[in-house]
Structure formats: C-alpha cells, structure tokens
Amino acid sequence: MKRTFNFQWHITDRCNLRCHHCYQSEYSQGATLDFLLSIAEKIITELKSRNYSTCINITGGEPLLDKSVLVSLLHFLNQSPVVQELMIITNGLLLNENYLHDLEKFSKLSTIKLSLEGATSQSNDLIRGRGTYKATMEKIKMLQSHPHFKTVVMFTIQKMNLPEIDSMLSFGKEFHLDGVILERFIPEGQGRGLKNLVLDKYDWENLLKKLIQYFNLDVIPEDLLPYKAFWIQFYPDFDILGAPCNLNEALCIMPDGMLYPCRRFIFPLGNVLQDGIWAVLEKSKLLQTVTDHSYLKGKCHSCFIEDCHGCRALCYSLYRDPYADDYQCFLK
Which site in 144, 185, 231, 303 is 20 to 30 Å from 87, CA atoms measured? Predict the structure, then answer.
C-alpha cells in the first residue's frame, strides 16, 4: 500500500472577497498555467520516486477566478496515478451550472469545501462581507443538485462566532451537508491585527466539552488536545472525526512555489521548484525539531501527551516563536 503525502495548494492570491480574518495580506498574485503545471510535474515526479500518493486541496485566494487555468490544472492532475483525490476550497460565489458541469468531468475531484462563518447572515456577513451568506446558501443548494461532489462547509472559529457552534451543527443537519469542518482562527495576513479574537484556553476547553456532550463521547477534554480541527460528518452517520496536526505529513504550496509547513504556519521552508519536497523536509531544522517535546517551551516541553505538540502555527503567529508554549492549552 502506498504511503500518502498531501498538499494544500494555493494557486492564486487573487480573491473576490476581503474577509476580515483572512490569513492573506496580498491579493494581486496569480500564477500562470505553465508555472502551475511545472509545479504539478515536480510534485508528481518526486512523489513517484518514493512510491507516495497524494490528496491535493486546491485553493487561493479564490481558485475559481480563472476557470481556464483551474480546469487545465485539474485535467493534468486527474490523469496522474499518483493523485488519489482532489478537493477545492472556495468561497463558492463564482460557481454556476456550467462551471459545475466542467468540474464534474474530473473523476478524482470529490469534494467542494465552501467557507461560511456563521449559521445566519448577521454572523457570517459581519466577517465575510454583506450578502455573502445568502449567496453562499444559493451555491450550497446548487452543489447539492450535483451528487458527484461532497458539499462541505468550513467554519473558522473565533470569539465573534464561537456562540454559533450549536447553530452550525443544526445547520449542517438541516441542509444535508456532507460535513462541517471546525478550524481555529490564527491571526496572520489581513487578520494579524485581530489577536483579540483568538480563542483562549478557556474557550477551547469549553468548546471541547460541548463537542463531547453533543456527540456523547466517552472521553475527557484532554483526550482531544492532539486534534487541531474537527470534521463533523452528517451522512450516512452523524459523527465527529478529529484532525491531528499534519506537520511533516503535508505541505502548503504558495502561488510562487514557496513551501510552508501549513498555510497558517507562515515560516518559509524553501521553494518546491528550486529545492524540491524531500530536500526541504530532510534539511529543515524547524520540521525536525518543532514536534519534539524536548525543544518546546513551557508546558509543552514536559507534556505527557505524546502525540500532541500544541499548535505551532498559533505559537508562531502570536509570539513569532514556533517553540513557544501553546496559548490555547488548558492543562494545569
């Protein structure tokens, strides 16, 4: 069985929204198709050399902005036996029937993930802009008439929308979503000045308690600390799946080919074309040490939870120190 190494690939910084919490600060850069194809060839060649397969989340910016580029890139990736699965992360506002018809041609494109920051227009539009809730709801309904795709909503939790958790779970059931992904806000890019909206350790502990109660889980909050996000599944069964940190098991690729440990961990590791995937992974002192408790500071240094090393992206965002104590850890 092949091992997997995954990517979140930002093919453009261009976007048709300016969400106040966005981890981008620049919105002008878009890669050419030739440049993106050279990256795709590099990825496939390197993965094939070590018998790896991959799942790629394609996003931006807004990846739907240049349809010809996106469709051509998907066509190339869909043909590769190295690529197991493709997904698109989008605000969805540019979707229409013709666009979906073209996307349905790609057998490996399984999931469309749409961003939504609240279960009502009042809460969502405060973060994503006026009218975006209504427009996104129209796109969700459109997507659901295309069973080729799973429809998933991505919900970034911050202090402003934390009270919406119950409503978002009810929302997912009511609108027959395939999933809702709960992610934590990390202040980078345009959101860098919003550190006051980051969940604190009490918020995070209470949220985990709420999820435990909601899903009747036979665990305590400490058991969920290794998970940095959650996938709420609605069909065929109502369930919650924890997402551990995937440092060293995935990389973020930016429009210029720069590699980050993850999109919210804005620490440049090298360039995919100039340096290559495996060289970056093997030569990066950061990646070799940042998940090792002996290098971490504060409570993280002596933590008894072996498979948790805190959220290094949050530590770097708040303190510009990737080894710092995890701000959201509630362990005594």
Answer: 185
